[in-house]
Amino acid sequence: MQASPRSLMTHDAIGQAALVRHGAASPAALVEAAIAAIAELDPSVNAVVHRTFAAARAAADRIVPGRAAAPFAGVPLLVKDVLCQIAGEPYQLGMRLLRDRGWRARTDSYLAARFRRAGFLFLGRTNAPELATAFTTEPVAFGPTRNPWDPAFTAGGSSGGSAAAVACGMVAVAHGNDMGGSIRVPASACGVVGLKPTRGRTSLGPQFGDYWAMLAHEGVLTRTVRDTAAVLDAIVGAEPGDPCPAPPLDTPLLAAVEVGPPRLRIGVRTRIPVDAGPAHDECVAATDRVAAALEDAGHDVREVPVRALDDERLGGHFLDVFAVSVDRDLRRWEQVLGTHIGADDVEARNWTLAEHGRAVGAARYVESLEYLQAFARRVCTETAEVDILLTPTLPEPPPRLGYLGPAPSPGDVARLGEFTAPFNITGQPAISIPAHRTASGLPVGAQLVAGYGRDGLLLAVAGQVEDRLGWSRHHPGTSVWNDGGAGPLH
Question: Quick one: CATH architecture of 7-473?
Fold first, then answer.
C-alpha cells in the first residue's frame, strides 16, 4: 500500500529510506512529496533559495527499486548555500554579487560526493546570511527566513534555512555548517536536532583544508537523533590531505544511539561564558529539564564551573580570527570573479568585519591563533572532569527578526553564540537538542558537549534524552503535521 504524499514527509530520513527499501514508496514519490511540501510551506518561511527539482527528479528515476544498496537511497536532501558545493548548481553564499552573476559551483565538494553516495537526492539550497556571518538568516540578497513556530521571529543562523525546512517537514534532513554555532543556534530556535561533530569528522575538501582557521565544521540538521547518527555514519571520514582528521570511531554512531550510554558524570553550567551573568530563565529551564531527565536515567549530574570559559580575552582574539577570515573570503571572491569588491557590494556588517580584518597584522593574527589553541587546551582539560557538559544552547530565546539592525556591532553579531562558539575553538562535538518551549510557544534547546572524538557517546546521551522528553511529537503550525504544537513539552 502506497503512503500519501503528505504522510511521506512526516517520516524521518531512516523511515523514508525504509519505505523505499520495502517498496512502500518510490524515490520519485518521495521527491514529489518534498517538492509539494516546499511549494506549500516555503512561501511562509523562505527557507529554500535555489530549487534543483529537475535534477532531483532525474536522479530519482535512475534508482532501481529494491536494488539500491545506499543507506538513504531516494531520500530528498536540501543543502545550505555555504561550503558544500555541487558542480553546476547555484552557489551564492547569501551574496547579492554572486546572485546577480548567477554564480554556480565548478566542482563537487567531497561532502557532496558522500551525500550522493549515501543515496540522497539534492532538491536545492537553503537560505543563509551573507557569508554565514550572523546568527540570524536575513540576507539582503534573498530576504529573511522566518521561524516556522512564529514568523515574526528568527529561525537562527547561519543554517537557518536548513533548520526551518527540517522543522516544517519539507525534508527530513538538511545540510548545515557551524563556525561558531551555526548548526546549533538554528536547531535550538526551530526545535530540531543539530550536531557539530568533532573537528575533522567530515571533510571540507577539496576546496579547503580548514575554513575560518579551525572554526568550521560540516554536519546536518534533523528531527531525530537517530537520523543525525545514521547520516553522519554515511558521510564521515577523512579525505587525502585533510589537515586534522578526527580520531576513528569505535562503533557506528547509530549503533551507539541504539545501545545507549553507560552511567556518566554530567556537568551543568548555565552562566554565560566570560561571566556575563545567568542565561535567560527560559534557557535555564530547558537545561534544567534535560538535567532532570539525565538524573532520572541514573547519571551523576552536578554543577561545574569550567572557569576557562570566563577568560575575558576570548572575544577579542576570536573577533580577530573571524574578521581576517571574512576579509579573506572577500579577497578570494575578487580573485575568482576578477573584479574589485567594495563597500556597496556587501552588507554593512561584513564590510565592517573585513575592515577590521585588514587592520589585524600578521603577528597579531598568529597571536590570536596561539591564544585560541591555548584556550582550547584549558577548556578540554577542565571538561575532562566530566563525561558530558550540559549548557543552554542560546543565552536567550529566539529574538524577533531584525534584531541586529542594519549595522550591528561585533558584540551584537556574536551575542547568540556565546555558549556555542567556544566549542568550535576546542573542536569538541556539541549538539543542540529540543528541550522546552516558552509560554509563547517558541522552541528552546539545550546543548550537550562531549570530549574530543567522542561523538558516539554524545549521540547516545542525546538519544536517551530524546526518548525521555518525547519532543518528536511536537511540530510547528507551519508544517506537514499542522498540529500547531502549542504549549510546553512534557
Answer: Alpha-Beta Complex (3.90)
